[in-house]
Amino acid sequence: MSTPTSRPPIFLPIDECEEWIWDVLGSNRDSGFEYMVDDDREFLIFNTNDFHADTKALYKIRRITGMRLVQISANNGYTQLWFYRQNHRINENKQ
């Protein structure tokens, strides 16, 4: 009897994550992304002036992209949403 092997999750490329986040949150043209890598983590920082909290949308982003919302900050009408996931490129190299 064979035992199932644990496979790492398959992640979308970061540019596709941007597109999904943009689409799921219904963003306008006055929005943009910043991308950062820190150790074994990837961050997408979504900057927008049109954000309304929607837990279903945030769950959908997590399910599709593997990215979790870890921080929200707001200043002068602009909101930053920080999404995070393990950096799969680094994790692939460790195997």
List the helices and strands and how they pair.
Blueprint: H1 14-24, E1 31-38, E2 41-48, H2 55-65, E3 68-75, E4 78-86, H3 88-94
Helix pairs in contact: 1-2
What is the CA-CA span between the terminal residues? 25 Å
Percent strand equals: 25-35%
List the uncertain runs. 90-95
In CATH's first tier, which class applies?
Answer: Alpha Beta
Find the structural class using helix and strand composition: alpha+beta
Pattern of helices and strands: HEEHEEH
Enumerate the strands of the largest sheet in spatial order, edge to edge or round the barrel.
1-2-4-3
Average per-residue pLDDT, rounded, comes to 83
Task: Give a short overview.
This protein is α+β, with helices and mostly antiparallel strands and 95 residues long. It is 31% helix and 35% strand.
Structure overview:
Helices cover 31% and strands 35% of the residues. With 95 residues, the chain is α+β, with helices and mostly antiparallel strands. The protein has a single domain, classed as Endonuclease I-creI, CATH 3.10.28. A four-stranded antiparallel sheet has the order 1-2-4-3, with helices on one face. Strand 3 and strand 4 form a beta hairpin. Helix 1 (14-24) packs antiparallel against helix 2. It is globular and about 35 Å long. It starts with 13 loop residues before the first helix and ends with a helix.
